[in-house]
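anyone seen this seq b4? input:
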Amino acid sequence: MNREAMMEEVRSQMPAKRWEHTVGVMKSAVLLAGQYGADVQKAELAALLHDYCKYWPVDKQRSVLEECGELGDLLEYDKALLHAPAAAVLVCNKFGIEDAEVLDAIRYHTSGRVGMTLLDKIVCLADYIEPGRDFPEVNLLRQLAETSLEKALIAGFDSTISYLLGKGQKVYPMTLLARNALIDECRGK
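predicted toks r here
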């Protein structure tokens, strides 16, 4: 499938506002990839596909993950976590995307993970800081992103964790582990 057809297919899966977000994530990912020496095409592709099924019914996202054995413990946490690994499975099957680096950047853009690759970091951070985002800490994240992907992501995860704690919700352990691993990375461990 060519790029334009892929973009149209992704656009058809979401409301116009989410498509604007996706375009913003693509632009931010391209800028970050250029700044930090990542593959710009892979960054743009992962950003394009990162929210592919976000607006599908939760049951449909769950079914995708059950069918391939990737559901794990996700249902014990916020249902918003399902769309990232489901999107990775779906874009592999639907678009023939087989690049593990691109698929992992999609899969972990919401939760993070220990040992995040450069592409993982770029797509996750681009999702936080794209131009349409407007939450209290976003300007700090954008400022930190100018000099450190890791410090910006730590601040992003801190924001997410604080939000969840404030709502009395559970925090996905992989996000805590990702945050801690990034702290160790910044400290040179």
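The chain has a mean pLDDT of 96. The chain is about 65% helix and 0% strand. kinda curious what u guys think
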